[in-house]
């Protein structure tokens, strides 16, 4: 890959998250470097989705701190995270099923719209120019994801693998610096997984987007990640390049199974 991994862009320090008496995350620290693919893995209930929710402001940890671009990030809400360049896809696709592929991806441009509602409604001056610019960006994403043939199709009519691709397109429309992917390949067949891997690597390579992903398919994780952090019961049990993680006895025991 031609991309160059840069400095730390996101640093999670001693993060602990509790719900009542239940510890979802306990004293977890790891960082994410610019332009890398950073995977978070672990068995079901390990705290992976909770960690993504901490990063994009859905959950607020009771302990620890989050440094984003060298500054401590205080209480963060999801819309604030999005406006600072953090986009997210979800394990359960949250698309507008009755709307077309094009219109779904356009919703990812909402934070970029600067003209007021009246100008947008009347499609006057700046709003008209802005709409053209946003549509151009969306068309570029549609071309990039090779979904031109379904651009006018309502999303609800598409097979699952293509819906996941549209969900990725909507996140890309936000032009994020960090893209959080929550099990982007769950429920896919082998061919769909190969396509999604290619798109993730292309996003990382061509756009320089930093990617943090949760994924259960260990083959995929080891193939496309630069570094992997491993959680188990809300605690960190491994962190390093794929080969280091793969060889860790603790990770093998907790996640891969001794016979793997």
TrEMBL record:
It comes from the Bacteria. GO terms for cellular component: plasma membrane. Residues 10-258 form the ABC transporter domain. One of its GO terms (molecular function) is ATP hydrolysis activity. SMART domains: AAA (SM00382). Keywords: ATP-binding, Cell membrane, Membrane, Nucleotide-binding, Transport. This is ABC transporter ATP-binding protein. It comes from Azonexus hydrophilus. The lineage of its organism: Bacteria, Pseudomonadati, Pseudomonadota, Betaproteobacteria, Rhodocyclales.
């Amino acid at each position: 890959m031609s991309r160059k991994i840069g400095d730390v862009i996101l640093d999670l320090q001693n993060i602990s998250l509790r719900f009542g008496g239940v510890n979802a995350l306990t004293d977890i620290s790891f960082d994410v470097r610019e332009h890398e693919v950073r995977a978070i893995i672990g068995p079901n209930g390990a705290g992976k989705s909770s960690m993504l929710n901490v990063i994009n402001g859905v959950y607020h940890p009771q302990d620890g701190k989050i440094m984003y671009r060298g500054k401590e990030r205080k209480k963060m809400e999801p819309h604030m995270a999005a406006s600072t360049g953090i986009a997210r896809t979800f394990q359960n696709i949250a698309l507008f099923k009755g709307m077309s592929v094009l219109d779904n991806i356009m919703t990812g441009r909402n934070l970029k719209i600067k003209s007021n509602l009246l100008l947008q409604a009347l499609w006057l001056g700046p709003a008209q120019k802005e709409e053209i610019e946003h549509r151009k960006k969306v068309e570029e994403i549609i071309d990039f994801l090779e979904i031109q043939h379904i651009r006018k199709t309502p999303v609800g009519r598409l097979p699952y693998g293509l819906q996941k691709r549209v969900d990725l397109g909507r996140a890309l429309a936000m032009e994020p610096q960090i893209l959080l992917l929550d099990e982007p390949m769950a429920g896919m067949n082998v061919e769909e997984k190969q396509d999604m891997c290619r798109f993730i690597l292309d996003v990382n390579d061509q756009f320089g987007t930093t990617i943090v992903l949760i994924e259960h398919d260990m083959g995929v994780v080891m193939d496309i990640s630069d570094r992997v952090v491993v959680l188990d019961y809300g605690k960190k049990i491994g962190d390093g390049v794929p080969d280091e993680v793969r060889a860790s006895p603790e990770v093998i025991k907790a996640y891969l199974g001794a016979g793997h």
